[in-house]
């Protein structure tokens, strides 16, 4: 008898995931394994419900055929028929029970939940909730306080780093206020007023370099260096700068313009103006770069102003020629009265180039006028009227442009072409200032001398640099409404315009005796 030598071997697939992709370098990327729910849904998708319906129909057909084959013949006993009825009733009862169970499950939702539902609710204690909230608030406060500490430490570090001078930060601040450009490896700046309309030829170039000394050496030298003048008692703590500014020698120090009127070597009034807050004192060589550049720009502005005034003093054809000697300009305002304009420049070593008389009362109006004169010239240089048509020449004003269509005569053309120089405007303002001082002196002197009637003066606060107005009221004591005489005096540049009570207009010269006689006449009229 032959026996089979074959043995059944069970082969199982390797438990590895399916390869999803193979990269160019040969690395295999596997598809992740399916979870239990994904595997169940995958198996459920494989079920063919149409095939299940066909199988159920086929089973019903087989059951019917079996029942037909089992139908008793006419001579079958009655007991077989009763058994079939009983089986059908049992099947119907089973189906009814199944239907009732399904309805009960769908009606009661708790039968559909897999996890058990607790029947009793957990009792919560209010104190436990309070403790939990306190614990949560404490943890939140700890997080906030730690964030605050980190912010405080970062802010302190930022402040500590900010006090340390940085060359690039200082250079950025310098560039925000001054014009800079890089020439090869050097940084050159310009502090002139050329962009504002200045035509002064002197260069205002300065060089910016990096400070090589450390902070400690700078602080040591600043503490050991003596003060610039014995009168300075204010100690200023300055932080060391990371950059140094080198200005030309001719722009170092402090400059200012002094204007004064003299009569027989006696100062009638004088004024000095300083630009950008500089004072006529010897500056500290270790000053900050911003103050150093402002002082140098002030020196350049004063030199430009004095150069313009000196040029005009030589070119003007006056009755009494103007004189330019060194750093002083002398011009005649009235007979016996001279206007002296001087340029004072104190260098860093404290040796002034010119020695001028000591200053008396400071006149802010004249200071502002001197400051604005050169500014207006700069403004006119940069804001010229646009020609119409556009092909016309630049420079003429709008009145001269329409002089031809308006048939202007030669006199009008000459009036349009006239323009005052800076020196002429300063002389006119000085003349008006001198006339106003004389008028005030005459009115105040008469008010003191004449007790009855009373002389009252009201000066108009809205005046121009070359014109002022004063109203003189003469009132008898006890007859304020009846005996009242008014006199209006317009103070011009070289003359006085007086308007009497009866409407008469009288023009007086610059001599104070004429105004004194006129007021005496009005006093006598008021008394009579």
From TrEMBL:
Q: Does the keyword Transcription regulation apply?
A: yes
Give the main location.
Answer: nucleus
GO biological process entries: regulation of transcription by RNA polymerase II
Q: Which UniProt keywords apply?
A: Activator, Nucleus, Transcription, Transcription regulation
Instruction: List where Low complexity composition bias occurs.
Output: 217-231
As for what it does, the entry says:
Component of the Mediator complex, a coactivator involved in the regulated transcription of nearly all RNA polymerase II-dependent genes. Mediator functions as a bridge to convey information from gene-specific regulatory proteins to the basal RNA polymerase II transcription machinery. Mediator is recruited to promoters by direct interactions with regulatory proteins and serves as a scaffold for the assembly of a functional preinitiation complex with RNA polymerase II and the general transcription factors.
Family, according to the entry, reads as follows: Belongs to the Mediator complex subunit 17 family.
Protein name (record) = Mediator of RNA polymerase II transcription subunit 17
